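Appendix B, example 12.
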Amino acid sequence: MKYKICLIAHYGEDYLDYRLSFLKYLRKFGRDSFAIVPRDVYFNEINKTEFPVYFYKYSRSWKFFFDIIKTYSFFKKTLIKEKPNLVFTYKFFPNLLGIYVADKVGVKLKVATVAGLGFLENRKKYILIRIVFRIYMKVLTKADYIIVQNRDDKILFEKYHSINKVVLTNGSGVNKDMFLNIDHLPSDFKHKDLREINFLFCSRIIKEKGILELIDAFKSLLSQKQNLRLTIAGWFDNKNIEKKVLESIKGCEAISFLGYAKDVQKIILQSDCVVLPSYYPEGVPRSLTESLALSRPVITTNHKGCKETCIDGVNGYLVKPRDVSDLQEKLLSFVNLNKKEIDNMKSASLELFNNKFEEKKVFKTIVDKIFDK
């Protein structure tokens, strides 16, 4: 059977980098596939892609609540017009509204992808978030399948939904061939000072990603070791954390802040080790899976989503969340490795990527579960 497939995304860049590849992969199962994507800075680029796209208004903050009625009407109108018999939704807002609307208009198959809980992790602290969480779980009962990206989330969702309905994948999948297209790299990215050890933090910059703990641990390490560098690449969600980060690195020449970077592979290739000491409710952090694809050791937390990307002592180190001393110790452990040990970690990272996170492996897990074989 050929399905008319609709994919509802939560962010333009995410659609271009990951969801578009999935639609292409589904060609043998689909016909007249199309997407519904937020209208953002990627509008023109998305319009040049091969699948028809409908654009909706979406704010990546609590303000999205004000758009619910308008977006509900837009989703309903679009699905009635296109008549898909399979809908994939990605992340909180498309899962919440997209699955609900798809059920209302009678879409045959509905698949929601949960890439971490995000703000819903605070449901025990705040009554409003607890209410939203209950609504979310209620809506997801209307989905035929729920894709989760780490074992902790699988255990959680199986408390509210049947075991056969919850499908575990390893992240969103990374197309290594496309990601490793580095012919265009300028010469200054192909060569680095071999005497330096360059740590990289590459992520959206929020407190829960462990950025302040990393800066503290790295600055303490500088008093013991020379020729170290920390590169911070990412964007800030709020002015408060931006002020704290910029103040904490001010005057420290060993720390560089690059801001948002589109071609992250360039920066990853310049690093010796990628560090993400996150205690955020992750799915599987994209920066870590991409680092594995580029054979980079990782230092990350023994925290859900993050720990999926690291075998402690094999392709990097696991640290305790929020623990500056433990993080400093693991940074030092990496600095003290010899070249052969680092090369072994690089090989282990790539092997882990190939076994778990390569795009076709992730996509096949979903397809084998959803479609008739």
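The chain has 15 helices and 13 strands. Residues 3-173+358-370 form a domain with the Rossmann fold fold (CATH 3.40.50.2000).
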